[in-house]
Design brief:
The protein has about 290 residues and is α/β, with parallel strands linked by helices. It is built from eleven helices and eight strands. It binds nicotinamide-adenine-dinucleotide.
């Protein structure tokens, strides 16, 4: 199997910028694509800042950082990336948006280019069904935030995903210095199916007065050896994101245990979304 030399990353938000940068620091040419010029310029600043910090911390030399930066280019249309060997979609978590992007991806990138999505909760099979002729090339490549740091890539096989698509995706994850693990296409895959009910239960424990948030988090850190308590992690992920993923689990698996806790729902309604809004379970005055 030939090495992947270039990737197109659709979406330049939190995940897309992390994916493009990780590709570039692994020697892969990365086309960073977004419809928003502002997001592209934010991504460029993020790349420079992260590479500068890597040099400061002696994780790489200044010439290596400069080379990595040169490997990334910025575009507002995916046609500029049509020479890419592999495409990773990391745009907004919305089925209609992803469906349109995948239709455009099918028209832009010929077989055998892999069409991967970084979705956290949307069915890979449903995305593939929007482009039936290319369904064998569609796969989930679920990376984690912050991408340069987190080792896991949850590779999700849809109903029509071919073996070759799986192998090539596992190979790219390894090339990017990650550990790929394969899962099947069920709501929440493995990571969110297991994590989100635990986060939800932490909200119930808080709501029912079992303990205050700091105590819940400290108990889970010290007692279960978690690096971060579940409520702190929920703020980091975004309470709206946690809420939306629980809604997917609830709808698709139809069990009451997945219904979002009323307290989580209330914080989301109030606009307390976590780190990104400066207040969620906890307060983050600097943001
Ligand atoms: P984000 O909101 O930070 O970025 C989304 C980007 O997509 C924005 O820059 C937006 O302008 C762009 N976009 C929207 N429509 C587009 C289009 N038609 N073409 C090109 N770009 C378009 O979102 P994010 O947190 O980076 O999440 C991206 C994806 O990654 C989602 O599917 C999400 O579920 C998944 N994910 C997120 C996390 C996380 O912790 N944030 C973790 C794993 C997976």
């Amino acid at each position: 199997m030939s090495e992947i030399k270039s990737i197109a990353v659709i979406g330049a938000g939190t995940m897309g910028s992390g994916i493009a940068l990780t590709g570039a620091t692994s020697g892969i040419r990365a086309y960073q694509i977004d419809i928003s010029a502002e997001q592209l310029s934010r991504a460029e600043k993020y790349h420079k800042k992260t590479l500068d910090r890597n040099v400061e911390k002696q994780r790489m030399t200044a010439p290596e950082a400069a080379e990595a930066l040169k490997r990334i280019s910025f575009h507002n249309d995916m046609s500029a990336a049509k020479a890419a060997d592999f495409v990773i979609e990391a745009a907004t978590e919305n089925f209609e948006i992803k469906k349109q992007i995948f239709q455009k991806m099918e028209a832009t990138f010929p077989d055998p280019v892999i069409l991967a999505t970084n979705t956290s909760s949307i069915s890979i099979t449903a995305i593939a069904a929007a482009i039936p002729k290319a369904a064998a090339r569609v796969i989930g490549m679920h990376l984690f935030n912050p991408v340069p740091v987190m080792k896991l890539v949850e590779v999700i096989r849809g109903l029509a995903t071919s073996d070759q698509t799986v192998q090539r995706t596992m190979a790219l994850a390894t090339q990017m210095g990650k550990t790929p693990i394969l899962a099947n296409d069920r709501a929440g895959f493995v990571s969110n199916r297991v994590l989100m009910p635990m986060i939800n239960e932490a909200f119930y424990a808080w709501m029912e007065g079992v303990a205050e948030p700091a105590a819940i988090d400290e108990i889970m850190k010290l007692g279960c050896n978690f690096p971060m308590g579940p409520l702190r992690l929920a703020d980091f992920i975004g309470l709206d994101v946690c809420h939306d993923i629980l809604m997917v689990l609830w709808r698709e698996l139809a069990l009451p245990k997945y219904a979002p806790c009323p307290l989580l729902r209330q914080l989301v309604t109030a606009g307390r979304l976590g780190d990104k809004t400066g207040r969620g379970v906890y307060e983050y005055p600097a943001k």
